[in-house]
Amino acid sequence: MKKYSLISLLALASLSAQAEGYQVNTFSPKQEGMGHVGVAMKLGAESNIFNPAAVAFSDKTLELSAGVSAISALGSCTYEGKKYETDNGISTPFNVSAAFRIYDNLYAGLSLYTPYGSSINWGENWPGAILNQSVDLKVFTVQPTVSWRVLPNLSVGAGLMISWGSVNLNKGLVTPESFDRFLPIAGMLSGTQMPSTIGNVVPASVNLTGDSQLAFGFNVGAMYDIDSRWTVGVSYRSKMNMKVKKGIASVSYANEALSRPVLGESLDLLNSTNFAAEMPCPYVLTFGVSYKPVEKLILAFDAQLNGWSAYKCLDIEFDNLAEYDQHLTKKYKDAWTFHLGGQYSLTERLDLRAGVMLDLSPVNRNYYNPETPGMTKIEPSVGLSFRPMPQMSIDFAFMYVFGTGADGVVGSYENLLAKKANPALDQLAQLRPELAPVVAGLKMPETGEFKADYMTRALIPAIGVSYAF
Questions:
Q1: Rounded CA separation 157/147 (Å)
Q2: Where is 49: in which H helix or E strand?
Q3: How far is CA 374 from CA 22, 201, 241, 364, 377, in A?
Q4: pLDDT 10s digits, 147-196
Q5: Which of 48, 93, 203, 380 is the most exposed place for a label (fewest CB within 10 A)?
């Protein structure tokens, strides 16, 4: 029964719930206010993240900035005509950056930010619990940076990305429908009378937790002033692999008196093994241009290519149980994100911003999981900065995330109880041929599908402060 229980660790697919729902685009309240554009803009310390080359265009000795966003997201699923919604907490990705002058044309910087993260809670007993109940996933990055202004109008920069993260995932192991269908089989095999139903509760669930090892990557960029109005830039953040070496699994039962006697012999094995898994954080290549039609107005556009095709599968390995390793197909594709925004300096103390972001989904519709409902998203935003003194800026932004929907997508899962029941029923039919017709009617399908329509929305206010001298 070890193999049957470990098949349930398909739950680990949620470790890689990246896609456009996992990648965080909230690196700066200033830039969030104008569609998170910034590769061809001179942002001071915040350019450590957007384009490290831009830092060298600063005329300040020291710049400091910090910001935090509050992501309030709502996911919904329509299944068999009924709508189910998530009950999510507030996620708070943040960024802290510093940059300082070494020479007039040479700067160094340091940033701490959250490039990836996800938090969603569908509840324990919604119909898609076999795919996901909840997930809390965080990735943090520290990036030291050097920026060099090679020519008066040309600069280059590079940073070392040092990342780590954690995952906390819950999912159902058995559907109520398959458990109810298995109860008479369990009674027949054990010779005892079983209840007829468990009701609308998930009989058994698993919690998976793990911390990743340090992962290393790099961030490089270049910026060129064509003239006093036009600037172009390019940046590249490399792929990183996040590895969980010793994850921990823990099984819980909705009804100890009923579920555990039926399932515990197999599922309790999960409590005594560790898992290892690896997920890619894909490369991000961004091209940008900015234009100043008048002195007070700057417009900018970024085209960002996300290398999600690196996420072809998820391999899961078990300590001392190599024969049960899993190979889970994902087949994501590379996807673009487009950013358009502008800033207008209304007064010496007040800047106004607006923008929009189009985030195209890389998710394969045939390998769908609701831990971060993947779909193309349209994200308009507004923002402003107020300077109570020349050296200080207080920044506000608000972004609205509108998912365009994912209809008729399919999430597949293996029927754990079929793996347990069908061989036993075959054996029973051989021992008692007169029961063969009854046994044939009791056999269960070995795989199942959860086909549904999904929608997602999010509100993202942000606040930040920066200081320079």
A1: 4
A2: helix 47-50
A3: 9, 26, 21, 9, 9
A4: 999 999 999 999 999 999 888 889 888 899 888 888 887 777 677 777 77
A5: 380
pLDDT tens-digit readout, 423-445? 877 887 787 887 777 777 778 88
Residues in the chain: 469
Residue 10 has pLDDT above 60, yes or no: no
* Token pair listed for 386: 């107020």
Reported in sequence order, the residue ranges of 56-129 that DSSP labels E, i.e. its strands, are 62-69, 72-79, 82-85, 94-103, 106-121
User: Count of CB atoms within 10 A of residue 348's CB?
Assistant: 8
Pick from 220, 361, 228: which is nearest to 286 by CA? Answer: 220
Is the separation of the CB atoms in 225 and 231 below 8 Å?
yes
Q: Residue 210: pLDDT above 50?
A: yes
Residue 19, CB half-sphere, CA atoms under 13 Å: how many? 25
Integer Cα distance of 117 and 111 in angstroms? 17
**Helix or strand or coil: residue 186?**
helix
Q: 3-state secondary structure string, 153-192?
A: CEEEEEEEEEEEEEEEEEEECCCHHHHHHHHHHHHHHHCC
Alpha-carbon distance values, 55 to 78, 229, 258 (Å): 47, 18, 63
* Residue 361 near residue 20 (C-beta atoms within 8 A): yes
pLDDT surpasses 70 at 1 = no
Q: What are phi and psi of 43, to 5 degrees?
A: -105, 5
pTM for this predicted structure: 0.87
Spatial CA neighbour of 235 closest among 359, 58, 53: 53
- Report which of 420, 425, 304, 296 is spatially closest to residue 362, judged by C-alpha positions: 304
What residues pair up with 366 in beta bridges, in sequence order?
none
Residue type, 321: L
Q: How far apart are CA 337 and CA 352, in angstroms?
A: 23
CB 411 within 8 A of CB 330: no
| Among the listed residues 76, 77, 38, 43, the one whose alpha carbon sits nearest the alpha carbon of residue 57 | 43
Element (H, E) at 5: helix 2-7
Q: How far apart are CA 453 and CA 457, in angstroms?
A: 14
Kindly give the interhelix angle for 416-431 and 176-190, rounded to the nearest 10 degrees: 30
Q: Record the tokens describing residue 114, joined without a space.
A: 């959250």
DSSP code, position 329: E
